[in-house]
Amino acid sequence: ARLTEEASRVGVDVQTQNRALLVKQQYFAVLAARDELVAAEAQRAQAAAQLELSRARVRAQTATRADSLQA
């Protein structure tokens, strides 16, 4: 009976540790996803700024439309 009780306790401890590990892994996955989102938003903003600059150059006739499309 003691061995069964001890084995049960160990099983519960293992399950608790596995759940704790899973929570930690998910937490760090969320942090990584946030970082990726911030980087993607910064990249989008940079691309939008580059597009606006290219359009302004075309309007000012300092660049051709083909040049603008390459940017």
Structure description:
- With 71 residues, this protein is mainly α.
- Helix content is 90%, strand content 0%.
- The protein is built from 2 helices and no strands.
- It has helices at 2-59, 65-70.
- The protein starts with a helix and ends with a helix.
- The model has no long low-confidence stretch (mean pLDDT 91).
Structure, briefly:
By secondary structure, the chain is mainly alpha-helical. Helix content is 90%, strand content 0%.
Q: What is the element layout, followed by pairings?
A:
Layout: H1 2-59, H2 65-70
Helix content: over 70%
For the residues shown, what is the average pLDDT?
91
Beta-strand percentage? under 5%
Multimerization state: single chain
Q: How many DSSP H or I helices? A: 2
Structure class: mainly alpha
* CA gyration radius, whole angstroms: 28 Å
Give the total of beta strands.
0
Order of helices and strands: HH
Can you tell me the residue ranges where pLDDT is under 50 for at least 5 consecutive residues? none
Instruction: Give the CA-CA distance, first to last residue.
Output: 76 Å
Which overall shape is indicated by the principal axes computed on the Cα atoms?
rod-shaped
Largest sheet: none
Salient structural properties:
single chain, mainly alpha, 90% helix, 71 residues
